[in-house]
Amino acid sequence: MDGSERPVNHHGDHPGFSGLTGQLCAVAFLLTGRETGRLAADLTAVSATDHVLDIGCGPGNACRIAAARGARVTGVDPSAAMLRVARIVTRGASVTWVKGGAEALPVPDAGATVAWALATVHHWPDVDAGLAEIHRALGPGARFLAVERQTEPDATGISSHGWTGAQAETFAAMCESAGLTTVRVGSGRAGKRRVWTVHATRP
Ligand SMILES: C[S@@+](CC[C@H](N)C(=O)[O-])C[C@H]1O[C@@H](n2cnc3c(N)ncnc32)[C@H](O)[C@@H]1O
């Protein structure tokens, strides 16, 4: 990283999504998050044998897609407003919703076979702590996938919510330092949106 690069959690000081504003953001994420959820389910080949942990699940698009594929699903988010909307719009799908953050995941050790962090790592106050928790929560051989929108280094406002290629590479190095293996950075599309993907395995 040269001195000018923003950290991977460059919105880690975001105040969080609460109250009416939080619920309005949740509705917006409902509309924008479906393609990312489909991409995550495809890239991790989620099936009925999986237990998916969606960290920073927001209004739960990706959780419902995993549940529709027969997986057991736990959606974790620190925002009560996000979880409220997730519960309201989830009808017929079996998802366990839990309030919590990446840095202290409210789940048992080694229980998940897949963990996703979709458009959320850039908000985590402590990414190393989040990765240590992912390592703890995943069982041996489990898959981890982070997805972030591709952004320009000088982006501001809403369009800065994502990563440059250098930030994706920095996050991949952090995954390796956390003990995850087969870490690789990819570039893909979630609908019209270009995204970075970081895949890893829990050894
Ligand atoms: C842009 S939204 C993405 C929601 C969803 N993953 C999606 O793709 O639609 C970012 C989410 O990250 C959550 N978040 C913020 N800080 C977090 C943290 N420390 N750990 C886990 N999730 C966090 C927010 O509450 C919010 O729901």
UniProtKB/TrEMBL annotation:
Residues annotated as domain Methyltransferase type: 53-145
One term of GO molecular function: S-adenosylmethionine-dependent methyltransferase activity
InterPro entries documented for this protein: Methyltransf_11 (IPR013216), SAM-dependent_MTases_sf (IPR029063)
CDD domains, per the entry: AdoMet_MTases
Gene Ontology biological process terms from the UniProt entry: methylation
UniProt keyword Nucleotide-binding, yes or no: no
Keywords tagged on the record: Methyltransferase, Transferase
Gene name of the encoded protein: rebM_2
Span of the signal peptide: none
First-tier enzyme category under EC: transferase
Protein name listed in UniProt: Type 11 methyltransferase
Pfam families: Methyltransf_11
Its EC number(s): 2.1.1.-
Organism phylogeny: Bacteria, Bacillati, Actinomycetota, Actinomycetes, Mycobacteriales
